[in-house]
Amino acid sequence: MMDLDIFYRTTKNKFFLRESLFLFLVCVLSTLTAIAQGPPEDKDALFIREIHDIALTQGSCYGWLTDLTTVGFGRLAGSPAAAAAVDYTRKMLDTLGVDSVWLQPCRVPRWVRGEKEQVQIVLPDKKTIELKALALGNSIGTGANGITAPVIEVRSLDEVDSLPDEAVKGKIVFFNRPMDPRQINTFNAYGGAVDQRVYGASRAAKKGAVAVVVRSMTNRLDDNPHTGTLSYQDPTQRIPAVAISTNDAEKLSALLKGSALSIYLRTTCETLSDVESFNVIAEWRGSERPGDIILVGGHLDAWDVGGGAHDDGSGCVQAMDVLQILKRLNYQPKHTIRCVLFMNEENGLVGGRTYWQTSNELEEYHMAAIESDRGGFSPRGFTAEGHVSIFQQKYKHVYQWEPLLEPYGLHLRLGGSGADISGLKDQKGLLFGLDVDTQRYFDFHHTAVDVIEAVNERELELGAAAMTSLVFLLDQYGLE
Amino acid sequence: MMDLDIFYRTTKNKFFLRESLFLFLVCVLSTLTAIAQGPPEDKDALFIREIHDIALTQGSCYGWLTDLTTVGFGRLAGSPAAAAAVDYTRKMLDTLGVDSVWLQPCRVPRWVRGEKEQVQIVLPDKKTIELKALALGNSIGTGANGITAPVIEVRSLDEVDSLPDEAVKGKIVFFNRPMDPRQINTFNAYGGAVDQRVYGASRAAKKGAVAVVVRSMTNRLDDNPHTGTLSYQDPTQRIPAVAISTNDAEKLSALLKGSALSIYLRTTCETLSDVESFNVIAEWRGSERPGDIILVGGHLDAWDVGGGAHDDGSGCVQAMDVLQILKRLNYQPKHTIRCVLFMNEENGLVGGRTYWQTSNELEEYHMAAIESDRGGFSPRGFTAEGHVSIFQQKYKHVYQWEPLLEPYGLHLRLGGSGADISGLKDQKGLLFGLDVDTQRYFDFHHTAVDVIEAVNERELELGAAAMTSLVFLLDQYGLE
Question: N- or C-end of chain B: fewer Cβ atoms within 10 A?
Answer without folding.
Answer: C
